[in-house]
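Hi team,

As requested, here is the filled-out complex form for the protoporphyrin IX containing FE run. I kept the field names the same as last time so the parser does not choke. Let me know if anything looks off before we queue the next batch.

— J.
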Amino acid sequence: MLLDADLTVLLFGLVVVSLVLSHIHSRLFSRASLPDELPWVGAKGSALSRAKAVLLSVVKTRQYLEEGYYKYSKQNKPYVLPNILTGPEVIIPMSQLRWLLEQPDSILSQNEVNRQFLEADYTMLHPNIIRDTVHERVIRREMTNQLGPLTEDMVDEVEFALEQNWGVDTEEWREVPVYDTMADIIRRISNRVLVGVPLCRDKDYLKSSGSFSRNVVITAGMINLLPHFLRPYIIPMIQKRKEQIAKNEKFPVSSYKEQNDYIQWALRHAFKHWDPNERTSEMISKRLAVLSFAAIQSSVITMTNTLFDLVSSPFAAGFMSDLRNEVELELGQESGSWTKTCLARMTHIDSALRESMRLCGFVSRGVLKMVVAPEGVTLPDGTHLPPGTKVGVSAYSIHHDESAYSGAYIYDAFRFSRPSKDAAKVECVTANKAEKAARDALKGKTPALVTTSDTFMAFSHGRHACPGRFFAAHQLKLTLAHIMLNYDIEPLAERPENKWLVSSIGPPMKSTIRVKRRPGTVGAI
Ligand code: HEM
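And here is what came back:
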């Protein structure tokens, strides 16, 4: 009997090992049916050399992108970028970007790439969440339009969160971990808009929401095994709101006031949706969880990078003093009131964030799409790609190209707030009302943080550019402006490095800075 059990375990082990080996073998040696004439960066041509390049993509993707850009993209040729996690990608030259943007989703789909990268069928709690982008519509129609009315709440939250994380001591310097404190601050501000008070200040809720966001990327594929963390917090709240809406529809009372947060907007949209599944409290809470992931991690990384870029610059002291002067001046003109227009006029704050996203953004490839047309697709240079191929451009390379940005590897905080030849190159392809307003505020001279272009793809570009970027910009500008106004920060001699893992770029997670509350600011804000 014992022998039988041992044999079963052994056989099971052998099956698992051979499955893993066959997966590794296919990842290393698969050409993904790509045409022979397409060159692979980092490889010489033989199957073994390609396998080595795939293996080394774990640590060499930045090198591959730099090499591929000058060897192929600049010569208007596509090339293959090895990727051990999600398979090879075809990187097309910038001259073919316009063509890529114009392809319909039925031929080249951005959604499919995200589904695969995030293992969305397993991680995203419900298959509809990636297939039907309901929250994209809620973000575009509701969240972006509510930025003005929501500013006061967001300011309230920034002030509270900064005091909690960085303290109010005006005498002694305090050492703070940048990533952790920014994670707490951004999570609080975002949740103020997503779920409102009191939940946005509930420690257990914030902890659960934070661990969900981190785990989607770290344990893609296993997240479904985690308990439905939102259940105890969100579901009863949604039920209650639904009851309130229904009651008010039946017996309207003048004292009834809807809350202005994501849950309320999502409820409104859900009731208009044709699919009854979309109206359940469960589905709304799942969509909220996924949105928190998209919204929070990206802003935390951006804020962390911006602070390190600013304080490690040889011009840190001058940058910070100019930023502070700008905030004081613009705020003074509004009698101390943080309005949307006042923020729009803070062009140095805007630029300091945009410049960090250019230099250190976490997106290395821009506009990555998957060929979904069953017959495949033919690139403008005649190369035919089979279905399943991933195609994109190298955002990292264009962001670091001297011909697009002079001093491309230097953090130049006011690059985008001083009119320059770089700014003149920006062409806004996806202008909408809010984007136009942001550009007008900058008198059309310089690109705003939210403006995407052929040379700025930190929010991606085209139809599927990040719909949350208006909210993100608002939240990031409010946070940076408050920091500049209320804290002194000791400059750093050297910037702690960002880490590349395959094609993802992470900020320094453990590095610290020293901060001190500025005299006269405590209780003044
Ligand atoms: C600095 C902060 C942010 C950055 C850098 C960023 C960046 C991006 C990028 C690069 C994409 C395109 C991904 C792709 O398909 O290739 C994207 C998509 C998306 N982002 Fe953001 N994002 C930020 C903040 C936000 C916020 C605050 C929200 C929500 C309020 C949000 C919601 C979304 C959604 C829903 C999509 C998917 C759009 C679609 O599939 O068409 N993002 N974001």
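Two things worth flagging: The pocket of protoporphyrin IX containing FE is lined by residues 110-111, 114, 133, 135-136, 139, 143, 291, 294-295, 298-299, 302, 363, 368, 458-460, 464, 466-469, 471-472 (CB under 6 Å). The domain at 143-229+294-357+394-517 is CATH 1.10.630.10 (Cytochrome p450).

Thanks,
J.
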